[in-house]
Recover the amino acids of this structure.
């Protein structure tokens, strides 16, 4: 059975998205990438390639199947209905319809089985908000696309993955002062359940081991420096273990991420953004992958933003997108072999 | 000019202190260690060596000079007045007088120039509290020894150092929920001033570069996720820069610690314990060194505790103590060359 290609979204065309898309295609053989199809604008990618001095052929394709076939010879592009203008470094609200169309089509194609997975290039929320976008972020928009009309979107979970370390922050983009109040046993339990299920079903880990960090220094040292471990984290772990989910901890966060410790678990559940992001970006800054768990389709993304400041300068690194596309291929193959 | 030896304290003799002291001495040539003298009990070290099957001669010495001379042939021990009993894994309040005497003598010898530096083995506060110890920790006790009678102790600053990364937490052993309230511009400024001065005077860095982390995810993203960067951290940096101290930031903490970022500064000033300890323990778990800045003498320490659970089992790693002794030698040599 042949693999369906990955649907790669446009992202903000004024950021580094077009450049890293072109560079990822150029690296397809060296990096062992499965076919992907860019959902965007042929002229815009062609113009980006020329501006960057990259000799990369771009081919309009009619569907994902044709994209898979042509991938070896050219960057296959499935054209959008909405127009794209790409002045690097100058985000333009006029691109919002094309940016959103690209994401919606990637989800539709993936849910229909024509694409194996959604890979997203970075977007800038501010440019979308000006055009009427009302979701808190990329992931929430994707979750809304996973829901039937009128239905609540499924709970999504952000994992940052690299070879050797996968981390999941339980709370994410909130002020540090708001973290203790946002942390509940239910939130930890729900998050761990999704991580456990997706590690099994999407990553093919037969017996996932989840290590849970404490919130406080030394995991609170038996209540001497904060009681959230006693009141919230430990009861969540007990509930999960009673349900047969292999969770361990709460561990002092500073001793969880060195090489010997990392070998002991499949994912680390962290209580807040930097507790999760500091260790993975310390050891895998260029090739971390943002994976969205909990949705009825697979979504991977590079672990960086639009980088408007360096767009069009020819210095953007495609490492993280390449890592995302490799992981997407691997998880899609895993899903096929399990089916 | 010959270097004075390092004064190495007893620490809790029921923890791994005696074992790592013996192992550090055994590694003295391979690790290129300068002479150190253990301030403890000859019989206790001898008994530890025998119990661990280590063929290490232990020699009582009358003073630091004799210790330096005999270091090549035996572990030199300057005996204490107070008795030491060392049942591994069973802390005993009866050891408190010897533990404290060892620390006090190390400070006295270092301040008198007979020792180049204080290196401390780990202590357990609970065993000392039972014996009437009234300081919040090891470092505060050392600071009190640096003050004249009736004088307030100098402000000490904890740095965790390894080759390639040095971190300083501005707040340390407090609950995460208490961090935002404890963070002030004054605290950041005072801490950075001590770090800057000691990097110059003790580490020989002629133009120290200090990178300052934000408190919130993405350093608050211009106030969208917390305002401490705007209200506290950025003003502290401005004040420091106006005073000629090269501080930069506030930076998003998750992007500060990868290899390319680390090359851009000499020390990272972090807002809380785990923000500092997670990155350094992720990359230098075994050989991080705890250095106390701000005191009128140099103090280094391994970056771990008494480890009562593995004491006497022959499995304790001396890497961190060895790294501490190496750094102590290096900083003492630096101080001599600057004098």
């Amino acid at each position: 059975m042949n693999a369906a290609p990955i649907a790669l979204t446009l992202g903000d065309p004024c950021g580094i998205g077009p450049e890293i898309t072109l560079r990822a295609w150029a690296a397809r053989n060296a990096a062992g990438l499965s076919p992907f199809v860019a959902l965007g604008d042929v002229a815009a990618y062609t113009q980006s390639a020329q501006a960057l001095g990259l000799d990369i052929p771009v081919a309009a394709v009619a569907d994902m199947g044709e994209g898979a076939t042509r991938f070896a010879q050219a960057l296959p592009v499935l054209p959008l209905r909405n127009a794209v203008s790409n002045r690097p470094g100058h985000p333009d609200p006029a691109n919002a319809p094309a940016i959103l169309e690209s994401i919606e089509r990637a989800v539709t194609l993936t849910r229909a089985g024509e694409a194996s997975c959604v890979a997203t290039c970075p977007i800038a929320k501010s440019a979308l908000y000006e055009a009427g976008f009302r979701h808190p972020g990329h992931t929430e928009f994707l979750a809304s696309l996973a829901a039937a009309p009128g239905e609540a979107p499924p709970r999504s979970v952000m994992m940052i993955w690299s070879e050797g370390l996968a981390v999941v922050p339980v709370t994410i983009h909130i002020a540090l002062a708001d973290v203790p109040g946002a942390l509940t046993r239910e939130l930890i339990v729900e998050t761990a359940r999704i991580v456990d299920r997706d590690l099994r079903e999407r990553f093919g880990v037969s017996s996932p081991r989840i290590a849970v960090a404490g919130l406080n220094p030394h995991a609170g040292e038996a209540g001497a420096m904060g009681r959230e471990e006693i009141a919230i984290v430990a009861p969540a772990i007990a509930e999960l273990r009673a349900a047969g989910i292999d969770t361990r901890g709460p561990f002092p966060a500073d001793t969880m991420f060195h090489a010997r410790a990392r070998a002991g678990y499949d994912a680390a559940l962290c209580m807040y953004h930097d507790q999760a992001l500091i260790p993975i970006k310390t050891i895998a800054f260029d090739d971390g992958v943002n994976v969205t768990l909990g949705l009825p389709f697979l979504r991977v993304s590079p672990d960086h933003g639009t980088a408007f400041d360096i767009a069009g300068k020819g210095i953007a690194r495609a490492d993280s997108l390449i890592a995302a596309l490799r992981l997407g291929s691997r998880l899609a193959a895993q899903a096929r072999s399990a089916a």
Summary: Residues 35 and 68 of chain B are 5 Å apart (CA to CA).
